[in-house]
Amino acid sequence: xxxxxxxxxxxxHNYQFLDDLFKSNGIEWGVVxxxxxxxxxxxxxxxxxxxDEAHDSRISNLKTIKSINPKIQTVYIKPPAKRxxxxxxxxxxxxxxxxxxxxRMLSKEAVAQNKIHKVIIMIEMGDLRxxxxxxxxxxxxxxxxxLPHIEVSxxxxxxxxxxxxxxxxDKLIQLSLYEQLIEAKFNKKxxxxxxxxxxxxxxxxxxxxxxxxxxxxxGEMLYFGNNLxxxxxxxxxxxxxxxxxxxxxELTEKPKVPTGTLxxxxxxxxxxxxxxxxxxxxxxxxxxVGLLDIHPDFLISNHDDIKIVGASSDMLVIDLGADEGAYKxxxxxxxxxxxMGALSLLNSDYIEKKLI
Length: 356
Prior knowledge:
eight-stranded parallel beta sheet; 16 strands; Alanine/ornithine racemase family PLP-dependent enzyme; alpha/beta
C-alpha cells in the first residue's frame, strides 16, 4: 500500500526558520493548514510547535484544530458561503470576506452566538480571484463599521493563486495605501495588512517588502521550502517534509511501443509514438498509486534512473530503462511532491499517512 510520510523534525526546522524570519522583521504570521486535510495526527504535530494562528478553507478542519487547542485563533480563508455562516462563526474566529451581504449575515449570527467575529477584507489586486474592487472600498467599509459584533481586523490580498500574477513591491505598497486611506477616512485602526503568502516571502528575503505589510499566512513554503519565484529551494530550508512511498507490484521487460489500434485512453490522452522506439524493450514497473490519488505531473522522482510513463486510475507505470538494476517486486520507490500533488494524496482515504 502506498503511503505518505510527514517528517516532524524537518517540519520543526522549517517552522523555526520562518518564525525567526518573521519575528526579526516585526511581522506576525499564521500557518495555513489546509494541505493537511484535517489529519489530526499531523495537525497535533504542527500545533505543538507553538502555532497560535491557523488558516484553513474547510470548516471541519478548523473544528478539528479547535478540538486540539481551543486557544488557537482560527481563520477561514475564503469568502463564506451563506449556508455555512452558523458553523463559520462557531469555529472560525476570523474570516476573509468580499461581500457586504455575507458580512451582514455573519454579524447577525455573531449576535445570536454572543461572539465578536473578526473579518479581513480581501482586495482585488490583479489576480482576479476573490477581492473587493478598489473603487468600492470606501462604501464597503462605511457599512461594515456599523455592524454589531463585527470587528474589522485586517485588509489583505491574494496573488498568484489563479492567473499567476506575481507580487511586487508596487502592488503591496498599493495594498498598504488602501489601509491608510480607510484609517484616515473613518478614523478606525486596522491592525493587519495581510499581504504575505509563501509567494511573497522571497521579497522579504531580498529586503524588498514594503514596511506596511505586517502579516503573513504561510502554507506551501513551510512544507516544501521552495522559493516560488525561482522554484529553487530556499537556502536553509528543507524541501521534503512530505514524501510519497509506492510499492512495485509488477516488474517486467516489455516493448517500448504499444501494439494494436490506438485510441484515446480513459483520461482522454492519445499516446505519441517515438519512431526510434520500434523494436526496443525496457524494464517497466507498475506502482500501487494512480490518478485517483495523484497526477504524475505533481511527482518529483528521487531516482535518476526512473522515468514516469503514465498512469491509470490506480496504477503508475515507470520505465527503468534497459536494466532493471537493483529493483524487484515489493521494493519501495519514493517521490518528492509538488503542492497540489501532496494535497490530493492527503485528501485520499486510500493513501496511508505516517508520522516519522
